[in-house]
């Protein structure tokens, strides 16, 4: 290990507690609960930085096995803060606040040797920048995972399978249909058919703004899957504009029963399943 890294190693090894305390002060973490959490995070980073430096692996190679512990700590820090709704900038600034206490410690150690101190300070700056950069990347991945999971949850909420009557299920579709959403609808509907033993499903597209060739293909795939399960299907919500669009596009819905409204589809479903509904006078 060169002398620059040796100075950094000696600093984090011999002055860990004072460096962590100065780091928290620099990051302006004052609230007691937040300070305790930040102190644990900072101590873990300092410890894994020390362990990595002791292996002799260049910190510039942060992706090497010698720095696995430090990478995991930084990733955990990013995930935790992303889950709390903090920003990538705030997380990066917390890591960058590590510089000042390290600079102060290096200056105390090497103040008599200007050249050595200058080289060591540059090394510290480079290392901490690498840590902050890794943190930003990990934070972005964590946020993307959170967003993806939230999107899946919203899709599940936006495609409920409702039992309208004995033997009749309905799926009210709202918004644009795409492959992933169609897959969720198909899986939820087929699972509900298995659980309830219903013989007929209504797919209501009143809330679908437009129907193009791709949307029609998704609907036909869903209808085919339902029929393979031994059930039948009615598509409701065929408004005049959608009907014209389907005709202009030359989409073949032959063999698929359609109705203008969900009420009409339910009336047909009840008739097909042998129910008769009458009004008491």
From TrEMBL:
The keyword Phosphoprotein applies. Pfam families: RsbRD_N (PF14361), STAS (PF01740). Residues 158-269 form the STAS domain. Keywords: Phosphoprotein. The keyword Repeat does not apply. InterPro entries: Bact_StressResp_Reg (IPR051932), RsbRD_N_dom (IPR025751), STAS_dom (IPR002645), STAS_dom_sf (IPR036513). CDD domains: STAS_RsbR_RsbS_like (cd07041). This is STAS domain-containing protein. It comes from Variovorax robiniae.
């Amino acid at each position: 290990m060169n002398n620059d890294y040796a100075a950094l190693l000696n600093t984090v090894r011999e002055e860990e507690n004072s460096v962590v305390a100065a780091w928290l002060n620099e990051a302006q973490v004052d609230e007691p609960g937040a300070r305790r959490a930040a102190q644990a995070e900072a101590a873990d980073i300092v410890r894994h930085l020390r362990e990595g430096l002791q292996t002799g692996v260049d910190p510039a190679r942060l992706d090497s096995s010698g720095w696995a512990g430090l990478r995991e700590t930084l990733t955990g820090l990013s995930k935790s803060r992303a889950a709390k709704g903090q920003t990538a900038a705030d997380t990066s600034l917390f890591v960058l606040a590590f510089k000042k206490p390290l600079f102060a410690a290096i200056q105390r150690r090497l103040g008599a040797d200007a050249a050595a101190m200058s080289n060591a300070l540059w090394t510290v700056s480079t290392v901490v920048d690498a840590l902050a950069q890794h943190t930003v990347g990990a934070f972005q991945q964590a946020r993307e995972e959170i967003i993806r999971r939230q999107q899946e949850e919203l899709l599940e909420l936006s495609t409920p399978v409702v039992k309208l009557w004995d033997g009749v299920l309905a799926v009210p579709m709202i918004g644009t249909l795409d492959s992933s959403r169609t897959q969720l609808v198909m899986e939820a509907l087929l699972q509900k058919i298995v659980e309830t033993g219903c013989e007929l499903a209504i797919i209501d597209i009143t809330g679908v703004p437009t129907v193009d060739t791709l949307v029609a293909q998704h609907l036909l795939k869903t209808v085919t899957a339902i029929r393979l399960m031994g059930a039948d299907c009615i598509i409701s919500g065929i408004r005049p504009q959608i009907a014209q669009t389907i005709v202009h596009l030359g989409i073949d819905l032959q063999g698929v029963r359609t109705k203008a409204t969900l009420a009409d589809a339910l009336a047909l479903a009840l008739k097909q399943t042998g129910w008769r509904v009458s009004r008491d006078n």
